[in-house]
Amino acid sequence: MKEFKYVITDPEGIHARPAGMLVAEAKKFNSSIKLSKGEKGADCKRIFGVMGLGVKSGEEVLFTIEGDDEDAAYDAVREFMSENL
Question: In the CATH scheme, what is the code of domain 2-84?
Answer without folding.
Answer: 3.30.1340.10
